[in-house]
Predict the structure.
Amino acid sequence: MARNPRYDVLFEPVRIGPVTARNRFYAVPHASGMTNSMPHMRAAFRETKAEGGWGVVCTGYVSIDPGSDDAPLPYATLWDDDDVRSHALMTEAVHKHGALAGIELWHGGGCVMNRLNRTPSMSPSGTAWMPTHVSYIGNQRPRIMQREDIRELLESQKQAARRARTAGFDILYVYAGMGYLPYEFLLPEWNHRTDEYGGSLANRVRIVRELLEVTREAAGDQCAVALRISLEELRGRPSENAASEAHEVVQRLSGLTDLWDVKMDSETTDCAPSRFTPEGSHEPVIAFVKSLTDKPVVGVGRFTSPDTMAGQIRRGVLDLIGAARPSIADPFLPRKIAEGREEDIRECIGCNICISSWHDGVPVRCTQNPTIGEEWRRQWHPERVPPAPHRGASALVLGGGPAGLECALTLGRRGYEVTLAEAEDELGGRLRFETRLPGLATWSRVLDWRRNQLQRLSNVNVYRGNHLGADDILELQPAHLALATGARWTPLLYSPLEVPAGTVDGPGVYTPDDVAAGVALPDPVVVFDFDNYYMGSALAEHLARNGRTVKYVTPSAHVSAWAVMTNEQPQTYRALRATGVELHTLSRVESFTGGEATLVNVYTSARTRLPCGALVIVGARLPNDALYQALIARREELTAAGITSVTRIGDALAPGAIAHAVYSGHRYARELEGGKSEGLLRRDAPLRGLDTLSRPIPAPTG
Ligand code: ADP
Ligand code: SF4
């Protein structure tokens, strides 16, 4: 299909200093969870984006000096020549497809704990970052930077930039964003210096200027220099010389950078979940920079619609469409627009499971794209699947939730004759209800995309309103059977041993499944959440918005404690407070009888009584695997019916987040009957040295 001329503007080349991006699609730096110990995985992950049409593909944060050590979080390094080869693997892979490669050179300053190397970290004035989230808390404060440290910082940036050029990068970053070292110089809260690096804005911005200068020196006329910067805070500060300190920063630095990469000042605003923040939330800051500079500007906004993207360019908001999450959810997004296949774009749902992977210290995962991070390790390509060994072999998938839909789609693409049977009249499984919870409507993209793709496959038949039992299956005689029958919430309580144990039952006790089924709950409602992800808080908010008096109880110190991993914990708290939900943290429900729940403080064991008409327990889920058990008890009949495999997938195997269900459905379908990657899990290993790859790499100069 031909490209829609409306989107031609997105395919215009953009000059960035001495290099030219082939189009306006810019995969911005973002954490991949892949360190230097996973160079092949990292290269293949970024190569896929280049193959998918992105004009520029960037690394995540790359430490320029051992004094910037973010362990145990997964970061990359370019500390010495030994690190060059590992990065060259990526640039070569990206160049193969005509994209430019960018590298985000990074020093974390007072935000890193240097846990690995045990050298005290440093900040402009010894000011520490004092986060309250436990995994960021360190117990050693940074040392005050001396002039010698500043000289060494500049030298580290210069050497890292030279190595980056040697490794083949086209765009070299100075990173003055989101709390990291150069940003710390910009803000008076961090920077109390009385020398030429502190005090006036001209002094505070000096370090960024000097970092840009040394990077330019290393870049020569071969590479562009980019500045990634956060300006939200500075926009609110008056300046003697300009409308705000942010205005002055842009004016002072515009001549020194070839590209502005604008990001927000904190993780929760920079990478906000769709549950609380709409697309395009960065626009005011990006447009602000654009209005002050003639250099190209890149910014993000979780853009997935080509109309929005083209609109951003036409309205002069930015020059390059930046994307982290949309490039993860669909590495082939630009290509699909180029080929007039916009409806094939697998749109990011803004759930931030990808961010949670970084917090977990592991390669990136995605709800929408199960192949991300698996390009090399399992050899999964996002757009291609291995054909079935016996084309036309039949497969029956039971359950039309995320696992079943992904499974049916992937089996269909492989060429199986697929029947998808769903008990309910509507596809979607758990999403049928969950997308109706406050803020979660965007998650229906998981369902919409798969439903639309399935409609194109003539070898997949979808039957709704078909609840199948063991006899039906034996009659249908599929060669393969995948059970994607989901899971159910249980009324198990949380025990002092921190496991679900002991059931509370009887009138007034409910689970989220009851709320989903529309059961009317007597007021007031206690939502007891030890699942700790979104369901407890979303349910509490939903009930409160529908006029119920809601009390939220959790054994954790925080509401939706795990949601800190997806950057949505603070907003969740605010949402519950805003809807009048009463909060009881560090409490477990011990019992519930006759209109009263007994709460026990998890530390002191002190008891309190909470009047309530309904108790909704949001805790453990158990698989719906009764059908599986019934089937395997009839193994001989299965064999006689020619059913060669019966497999549980998704929540029916192990209840989890939607991302796990999609991954499970995809993996089963891709690997069925020895699909190329069956059981494959290649182990990556560090690459060291300068000698590399197919082309000679010159030694760093200077
Ligand atoms: P997952 O997240 O693993 O995809 P879901 O709970 O979202 O699981 O979806 C499971 C789906 O399976 C539900 O839509 C449910 O109606 C359907 N289902 C369960 N048992 C059967 C059955 N015996 N026949 C057909 N569909 C079923
Ligand atoms: Fe988007 Fe969620 Fe995938 Fe992240 S995990 S890219 S937020 S769909």
In short: The CA atoms of residues 333 and 345 lie 6 Å apart. Residues 325, 328-329, 348-354, 366-368 surround iron/sulfur cluster (ligand 2) (CB under 6 Å). Residues 147-166 form the longest helix (20 residues). The chain has a mean pLDDT of 94.
